[in-house]
Design goal:
The protein has about 100 residues and is an alpha+beta fold. The chain has one domain. The protein has a three-stranded antiparallel sheet with strand order 2-3-4, with helices on one face. A two-stranded parallel ribbon has the order 1-5. The protein is elongated. The two termini are about 30 Å apart.
Length: about 100
Amino acid sequence: MSQHAHHAIDVHSHYFPQSFLDLIEKHGPSHGFEYQTVEGKGPRFKHGHLVTGPVGPKFVDLDTRLRTMDEQGVEAHALRFPNRWCIGRGEFGAAPERDL
């Protein structure tokens, strides 16, 4: 646990578990969405002309994420399924989060 005096909750966090990346790999290309892993830096996402990343290990590796949270004094994250725009606005099925 952090040595910070406060116990922050980060309400705007991004985390991309391998199951999400697998979902993108499987369904994304037919909807113009893809990612590639940049060695040592994490995934870089591309949707149409929009390119983001690489996002860094703290966004894909749970141990690195928890260590970073401790360093920043963040006790918890409020996470939700990534925005539907990044997986084709739901065209992957009624509830793609079930595949995570």
